[in-house]
């Protein structure tokens, strides 16, 4: 059974997906691209372990699958929290908390409109069109 064409096809596809995911992890360009690629890589690893379990009729690799799945989930949550903290304004940068209550919504909207009026095309990041905090020379 180890030489069947289906197993070869599965092996080639999983290897190709893992190789492309590693390329995207290294290449980027953004942290979110890298995070999605690492999720794809961990998924390919889980599929490889699952395929091995089915072919060899093994059940002792379930903890390995569990660790890989937990790693993927925790890494995704960690990056999402990091990116959301990175996108928030500093407290001294704006007088209104953008995550405030409903009563503060008009003030948040006014501040967002002021920010949009001050924005110019040179300050936009080409990857995701969000304003960057870096100063161009």
UniProtKB/TrEMBL annotation:
Keywords: Cell membrane, Membrane, Transmembrane, Transmembrane helix, Transport. It holds the Pfam family MrpF_PhaF. Residues 114-137 are annotated as: Disordered. InterPro entries: MrpF/PhaF-like. It is found in: Cell membrane. It is a multi-pass membrane protein. Signal peptide: none annotated. It comes from the Bacteria. The chain crosses the membrane at residues 6-23, 61-80. Belongs to the CPA3 antiporters (TC 2.A.63) subunit F family. This is Monovalent cation/H+ antiporter complex subunit F.
């Amino acid at each position: 059974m180890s030489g069947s064409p289906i197993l070869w096809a599965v092996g080639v596809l999983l290897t190709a997906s893992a190789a492309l995911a590693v390329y995207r992890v290294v290449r980027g360009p953004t942290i979110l691209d890298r995070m999605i690629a690492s999720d794809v890589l961990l998924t390919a690893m889980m599929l490889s372990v699952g395929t091995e379990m089915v072919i060899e009729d093994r059940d002792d690799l379930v903890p390995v699958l569990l660790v890989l799945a937990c790693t993927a989930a925790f890494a995704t949550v960690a990056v999402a929290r990091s990116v959301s903290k990175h996108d928030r304004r500093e407290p001294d940068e704006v007088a209104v908390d953008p995550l405030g209550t409903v009563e503060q919504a008009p003030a948040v909207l006014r501040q967002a409109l002021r920010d949009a009026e001050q924005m110019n095309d040179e300050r936009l990041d080409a990857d995701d069109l969000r304003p960057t905090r870096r100063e161009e020379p």
